[in-house]
Amino acid sequence: MYDVVQRLYDSQFGNEGVDDIRKYIKLGKLGEAFSSDEQIILLIDEIDKADLEFPNDLLWELDKMEFYIPETKETIKAKERPIVIITSNAEKELPDAFLRRCIFHYIAFPDKEMMKEIIKVHFGKIESRLLNQVLETFYLIRGIKNLQKKPSTSEVLDWIQALQIGGISPERIKEDLPFAGVLLKKNEDMDTLEAERKRTYGNVRW
Fold first, then answer.
1. Residue 38: HSE in the Cβ half-sphere, 13 Å Cα cutoff
2. What does the domain layout of the chain look like in residue ranges?
3. CB-based burial of residue 51 (10 Å sphere; 0-12 exposed, 13-18 middle, 19+ buried)?
4. Sorted alphabetically, which InterPro entries does this protein's record hold (predicted)?
């Protein structure tokens, strides 16, 4: 990581050593993992949200367990091969060459019981009636066909926070589904939800 801002700041105030670029090169998490004397577990989270070329850029580093810093002409080699865990939400395809180097472990979306435990970790004092209504409504929404982006765990946690701050009762959730925009982030999905609610009105407890 090249700290160009700090180097520019130092040059403006005439600080000594500004020509020594090594002062402004800092290792990122991969560099720290490679430099460690102990085996490190390195997490690369949600790689599908990174730039398109990022997975390909990692191929050499993960294959050879080293990377080159052109500014200092240094090669950083792993002292101990780290255990690299990479997560993806499968929101976009990853390159085949990258995938061939991975061992896959698919984690299914939490069922109601698991989600209840997750919610209790974050909201230990949540009222049981509110929790049950949130879960019922959340999984009903996830079951709607043609949603472009189904709400996930982070959305339901944000939704509960909004409901608690707003003092929303379980009955109110069934009536008009407040703060639905916390769950669904696309206008098309909001339209789909509204159409589904009208279609099933009286038959489904939202």
1. 2
2. 4-99, 112-199
3. exposed
4. P-loop_NTPase
